[in-house]
Amino acid sequence: MSLLELRKLNKHFGGLHVTNAVDLTLQTGEIHCLIGPNGAGKSTLFRLILGEHHPGSGEIVFAGENITSLKSFARIHRGLSVKFQVPGVFKGLSVRQNLEIALQIRHRGAELEAEIDRLLAFLGLGSEQAQTAGNLSHGQKQWLEIGMAISLKPRLLLLDEPTAGMSPEETHLTGEMVQRLNADGMTVLAIEHDMAFVRQVAQRVTVLHLGQVFAQGSIDEIVADERVAAIYLGQAHA
Amino acid sequence: MTGFLSLFRRLEGPQTVGRGPAFWGLFAVVLAVALVYPLVSDGYTVGNTVYFFVWVFIALSLCLIWGYGGSLSFGQTAFFGIAGYGYGILTINFGSAYGFTLVALVVAVAIAALFAILLGYFMFFGRIAGVFLGIVTLAVTLMLERFMAQTAGPEWRIGSARLNGFNGMSAMPPLTIPWPGEPIVLFADVGLYYFVLGLLIFVYLGLRMLMNSSFGNVIVAIRENPERAEMLGYDVRKYQLITFVIGAALAGLSGLLYTVWGQYITPSSMGMTAAALPLIWVAVGGRSDLTSTVIGTLMVLAAFQALTIYGSQYALVFMGVLLVLTVLIAPNGLVLGAMNWLGRLAARLTQRIG
User: Fold this and answer.
1) Spatial separation of the C-alpha atoms in residues B322 and B317, rounded to whole Å
2) Which of A5, A33, A20 is nearest to A206 (CA)?
3) Average pLDDT score over residue span B299-320
4) Are A118 and A197 found together in one domain?
5) Looking at the DSSP assignment, which residues form a beta bridge with residue A213?
């Protein structure tokens, strides 16, 4: 069963077609990775899904509902959630308050405090809870934002480069975290350049190139595809 | 009952400086002094203190919208003027019998809030933010000033209330509380002092509870990162509008009390200088904290008045210098900086003793 369907999505800024008739279907329960060279339109596609940009034409269907004209916050209410490319934490507030702001939507009072503690432990940020979020390391900020994104208990989690700036060990831990969330029933769509991460988590991979779907398949099929190697993997793994 | 108690727990929290027995002990002492003060002082000085208190409400409105919400409104004086004129027009027409001045108080503040809903709707739902919000709000207050300044002719009247152009309105009745026997008239000394002090404490504690609630969490989240706040499912525009309207009501309350205090209101209360001064009080005190805003505003006002009386025409220049110094030395506010420093000092001392 499909959870998200992008139908012929077009977005252009002036004469530049950032996404060009993109068709993409996400199955419920899968981990799907979106790869492609810089400027392929990956982040723009996320912005379209989230309603920060509006497509020139095409449709976005989420869980059977056409959400193309919904405002961003309303799409979040339908079960979408995102971690941005540049970690979007509330820099001036404490780590604990960051999580409280995300969790207070679903929980109140003592239950809220318990949920914050549980999430802090899950993210390994327990000892940093009083720290100002702006003072965290880049990797910790990534985790904090992932924590905020998953506190909404979304049906579809969008991750834009979740492992950027992380060490190989941290990247692997993040992969395990994503797999655990997926095992609990969360569908995941991730933009990622780190092929080790993609290999670790992805059940399906879509390659985006010049705003169009260039190739789609399992990670092994994608790696074996010479056309993909020519435009992207070849450069990254040269 | 538990809901009631949890309200009081929100008097303290991450959004407000000051917690624990030490802070509330000091608060009680300050409150006791404030309560006894009129009994040991003369009427003029008490009236002058009321004048200072009156301005604290507009400072708090800016603290809420700008310091906590991150939207710089340059035009809080528009609501100040609307409520001030509103009170004048209502009470000059309908008098002060049967407690009508108290009704006028509520209605005038409500008119200011309604105007804020209208203006705020177009600004926030039109996604106007940052410097443009400042420009729009400033333009609105200056436009109101210009408009009121040209209402000198006899044709500019609402009922029996003449608007009087640049000279402004005057001789509206003071606040009058109906009382068996004789109504209590709150003239600008001891009577009005206790009334305004009560309002001030109510607003201060109310805002503390509001800012430490889940609503307050969303407000500071929007200041820190509106995009992230929206992507947590919050309708940012709605929260900004509500904050703006609460702020407008507070600025309106300030203008109304000012009108009651001096029994006059003029267009210049919505002018450029009037619009700029609250920004300085709030910035110097510490815009992101309620307590710092109250202390800072009272201190700067007292210093400004002393300079105007004893010093010279240089008082406004001094205000400018003060603002520049604040930005350079303590960008988050001098009072807030000092309070944070004291807090760290106290923590270190208790650590050493322990």
Assistant:
1) 9
2) A33
3) 85
4) no
5) A208
**Residue A82 sits in the same domain as residue A42:** yes
ipTM passes above 0.95: no
Q: How far is CA A201 from the centre of its chain?
A: 13
Among B192, B217, B211, B189, which residue's Cα sits nearest to residue B292? Answer: B211
CB neighbours of B10 closer than 8 A, spacing ≥ 6? B208, B209, B212, B213
CA distance B323 to chain A (A): 23
How many angstroms separate the CA of residue B214 from the nearest CA in chain A? 7
Q: Residue B6: pLDDT band by 50, 70, 90 thresholds? A: confident
Check whether residue A201 and residue A83 sit in a common domain.
yes
Which residues in B lie closer than 8 A to residue A104 (C-beta atoms)?
214, 217
A:18-77 residues touching chain B, CB 8 A cutoff: 50, 52, 71-73, 76-77
Where chain A has pLDDT below 70, the residues are 233-238
Q: Residue B342: what pLDDT?
A: 86
Sign of CA dihedral B220, B223, B224, B229: positive
The reply to whether A58 and A105 lie within a common domain is no
Nearest to B126, CA basis, from B32, B288, B241: B241
User: Over 50: is that where the pLDDT of B302 sits?
Assistant: yes
> Are A216 and A113 contained in the same domain?
no
The domain tally of chain A equals 2
Span B63-77, pLDDT tens digits = 999 999 999 999 999
Instruction: State whether B224 and A102 contact (CB < 8 Å).
Output: no
- Chain B residue with minimal CA distance to A84? B228
Partner-chain contact B232 A105, CB within 8 Å: yes
For residues A78 and A156, membership in a common domain is answered with yes
- Give the structural domain span for A27: 2-89+141-236
Judged by CB atoms closer than 8 Å, whether chains meet at A100 and B229 is answered as: no
Of B14, B214, B225, nearest to A94 by CB-CB distance is B14
* Cβ-based contacts of B225 with chain A (< 8 Å): 88-91
pLDDT tens for A171-184 read: 999 999 999 999 99
Domain boundary among A135, A164, A189: A135
- Residue A35 corresponds to which tokens in the numbers above? 């790869």
What's the pLDDT tens digit per position in B102-139?
999 999 999 999 999 999 999 999 999 989 999 999 99
Chain B, nearest residue to A94 by Cα: B14
User: What CATH number has the domain bearing residue A177?
Assistant: 3.40.50.300
Per the CB < 8 Å rule, is A73 touching B230? yes
Q: Is the pLDDT of residue B349 over 90?
A: no
Which residues of chain A lie closer than 8 angstroms to B221, CB-CB?
A: 90, 93, 101
| Chain A interface mutation, best of B219, B228, B340, highest count of A Cβ atoms under 10 Å | B228
Is residue A161 within a helix (H) or strand (E), and if so which, with residue range? none
